[in-house]
């Protein structure tokens, strides 16, 4: 049954999120809802399938959690940890101890949902007067800002959710 609620951005402001960061929070919550809806009928056995060579649903789920974690780290003006770098290197491959397809889907979906909640908590703690502060990105220290990283986290999430939705739909038949 389709959701009768309007999209998240049309439901009004989210409590405790600064006004300038509302669109970021709305986009992340919409992404989480879209993933949940797409995975409800998804055949878990197809998690790592790559129809026509496109990225698998499993990759997208891993990447969604990973990219949020990395962008939030940079927005806090911190370097990536060895654990984060190892996670990045492993994206696209099932964890060796991941269990069966059903548990993998549930675990990956939960990891993404947890990162969305961490992002919302970070948005809550981000003063608007810091949004234009410089933040280096990656080993090369490419230039960005707090708001640039937070907006990129949201738009990159939306981009991968769109790809996940199409791939899941194709695989579900």
From TrEMBL:
What GO terms are given for molecular function? hydrolase activity
Asked if the record carries the keyword DNA repair, the reply is no
Q: Which domain of life is it from?
A: Bacteria
What protein does this entry describe?
A: Metal-dependent hydrolase
The answer to whether keyword DNA damage applies is no
UniProtKB keywords: Hydrolase
**Species the sequence originates in:** Hymenobacter coccineus
Indicate the segments forming the DinB-like domain, all copies: 28-164
């Amino acid at each position: 049954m389709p959701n009768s609620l309007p999209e998240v951005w049309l439901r009004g402001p989210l409590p405790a999120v600064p006004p300038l960061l509302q669109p970021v929070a709305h986009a992340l919550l919409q992404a989480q809802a879209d993933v949940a809806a797409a995975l409800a009928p998804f055949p878990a056995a197809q998690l790592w399938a790559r129809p026509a060579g496109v990225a698998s649903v499993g990759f997208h789920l891993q990447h969604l959690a990973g990219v949020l974690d990395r962008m939030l780290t940079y927005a806090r003006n911190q370097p990536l940890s060895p654990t984060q770098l190892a996670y990045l290197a492993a994206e696209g491959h099932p964890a060796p101890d991941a269990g069966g397809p059903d548990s993998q889907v549930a675990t990956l979906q939960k990891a993404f949902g947890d990162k969305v909640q961490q992002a919302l908590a970070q948005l809550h703690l981000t003063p608007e007067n810091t949004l234009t502060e410089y933040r280096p990105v990656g080993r090369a220290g490419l230039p960005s800002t707090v708001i640039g990283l937070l907006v990129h986290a949201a738009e990159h999430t939306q981009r991968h959710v769109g790809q996940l939705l199409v791939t899941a739909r194709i695989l579900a038949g």
